[in-house]
Amino acid sequence: MVEDKHSFFYDWGSVTTYKPDISSQELESRVKWFINMRWFAILACAAGALIAAAGIFPANLDYLDFAVVIVFLSITNLVYSIISRNLLGDRSNRRELQSLLLWQMLGDFAALSFLTYALGGIETPMATLFMAHIILATLFFTRRRSLIIAAAAWICASFPLMFEWAGIIPMRSIFDGQFKSMVISRFEVAFGFVLASGAVYFVCWYLVSEISSSLKLREQQLEESNQMLIKIDKEKTQSTLLATHELKAPFAAIKSHIYTLRDGYCGELPEKAQTVVSRIGDRCDQILSRITDIIHLSNLRTLVVTDMRLVPVDLIAAFSEEAREGALIGKARNVEVINLAETHPSVYIMGSYSHLKTLFSNLIQNAIFYCHENTGRVVLSIESLSKKVSVAVQDNGIGIPSENLDKIFDDYFRSKNAVGHYKGGTGLGLSIVKEIVFIHGGTIQVESTVGIGSTFTVRFDITEAKQEKTDHGEHTDS
Ligand code: ADP
Predict the structure, then answer these.
(1) Residue 418 Cα, ligand 1 centroid: separation in angstroms?
(2) Are the beta carbons of 61 and 172 closer than 8 angstroms?
(3) Do residues 93 and 140 make contact, with C-beta atoms less than 8 angstroms apart?
(4) Global pTM?
(5) How far is the CA of 365 from the centre of ligand 1 (A)?
(6) Is 432 in the pocket of ligand 1 (CB under 6 A)?
(7) Cα 453 to ligand 1 centroid, rounded to whole Å
(8) How do 443-449 and 377-385 pair as beta strands?
(9) What secondary structure, in 3-state letters, does the chain show?
(10) Distance, CA of 39 to CA of 46 (rounded, Å)
(11) Residue whose CA lies nearest to ligand 1 atom number 16
């Protein structure tokens, strides 16, 4: 049965498994969000200016007051977004981002203070808008810093009323002015308003900062537990690695003894014994290739990932070596291997020559083994476009069922049709491929149709630098 073509794409762009720094990420997204929200506030002010100009609201509103705030917020927000663009993306800029947030809040306080005054101060609920900044400050900053912000909000919200009471600025009222005149003519009422707003601000700060401190603490504890689990997992993998390594030598010895028996060095074996010995040999080969894969995968996940140094390597050279090897394996199985990349000029990427060879070898050998003998055809091609190079391994083999496409990169996974077609697999080849592509900062894509074939495409960034090749095929700095 022929299914529709399905594809699966593995991209590590957003994966942060190895060194997560959630707090910095969050801080960055909040900076962006804060700047975006200010554009909405500017729009709201523009709506206010329109209402004031149209005179639809029965109050003494002046559109020029809104215009002043719009101009002030637009200029400052433009400056913030330019500065933040230079700071975002680099985690070492954490402190600068926090200072930028602090300045944004103080700028907003100036605008809010002016708007509170222009809209009659206590005649409108404008001063409650300071509360939003107090809540945000408890998320962005330490408790002490957010308390300073709460105090600054209180002072800025109280300025208009206090200055009007002291006669420093003229009293403004958007209604008939009677209520406002009564408030500022009496000390205890004016100060009562100021103290009450202060009490509301500080209670709000206390409650929210309590909650956000405990959330931050939880986040930190989770992060520590996560790091601990990663460490334990690494130790576990290392001990598995050691145990597996120790199994390799005895199995290699058993294999050589079996070959001694099979090849008649201990005398001619009866036919039945020959069959049994050759079966034992096959099983030994399977176990050895599984052990080799486990060791390789563990190395990639533990030892190498942290220590590996990537250098410029010629991807074409690594690919061609494996294509030649593949052609020999293909010949033995009567599968045609066509290398369209034979004459492709060198392409350099930052990587490890030996790991790239393993990657290509796994993909090419899979393509060969999952093809039908005699009619199988594997096409290898490379395409380089400005800064990217893509390598494609295409076959006309058994294909991968669509429901298995997202599982084939999992450890030990083998699809049912693959198990039926080829017994020798370990289910670790593509796990190794996935790790190698990840280490190289690349992506891998699979397209497949059951009964028609599969195409695996890996993509990497090209590097400018070229290096000399050493005797071991490994490329080193020149
Ligand atoms: P295996 O040792 O089983 O080949 P891999 O990790 O290399 O292990 O592959 C995992 C599974 O992905 C295979 O068992 C098979 O189901 C599927 N697969 C990989 N490559 C191909 C291919 N070229 N054609 C069909 N199926 C494939």
Answers:
(1) 7
(2) no
(3) no
(4) 0.58
(5) 10
(6) no
(7) 12
(8) unpaired
(9) CCCCCEEEEEECCCCCCCCCCHHHHHHHHHHHHHHHHHHHHHHHHHHHHHHHHHCCCCCCCCHHHHHHHHHHHHHHHHHHHHHHHHHCCCHHHHHHHHHHHHHHHHHHHHHHHHHHHHCCHHHCHHHHHHHHHHHHHHHHCCHHHHHHHHHHHHHHHHHHHHHHHHCCCCCCCCCCCHHHHHHHHCHHHHHHHHHHHHHHHHHHHHHHHHHHHHHHHHHHHHHHHHHHHHHHHHHHHHHHHHHHHHHHHHHHHHHHHHHHHHCCCCCCCCHHHHHHHHHHHHHHHHHHHHHHHHHHHHHHHHHHHHHCCCEEEEHHHHHHHHHHHHHHHHHHCCCEEEECCCCCCCCEEEECHHHHHHHHHHHHHHHHHCCCCCCCEEEEEEEEECCEEEEEEEECCCCCCHHHCCCCCCCCCCCHHHHHHCCCCCCCHHHHHHHHHHHCCCEEEEEEECCCEEEEEEEEECCCCCCEECCCCCEECC
(10) 11
(11) 415
Which tens digits make up the pLDDT trace of 3-45? Answer: 456 666 655 543 333 333 336 777 888 888 889 999 999 999 9
pLDDT value for 6: 63
Confidence bin at 469 (pLDDT 50/70/90): very low
Distance 408 CA to ligand 1 centre (A): 7
**Tokens 């433009």, residue?**
78
Burial of residue 262, with CB atoms counted within 10 A of its CB: 0-12 exposed, 13-18 middle, 19 or more buried: middle
Q: Is the CB of 430 under 6 A from ligand 1?
A: yes
Cα separation of the two ends of the chain = 54
Q: What's the whole-number mean pLDDT along residues 438-461? A: 94
Q: Are residues 91 and 21 in contact, defined by beta-carbon separation less than 8 angstroms?
A: yes
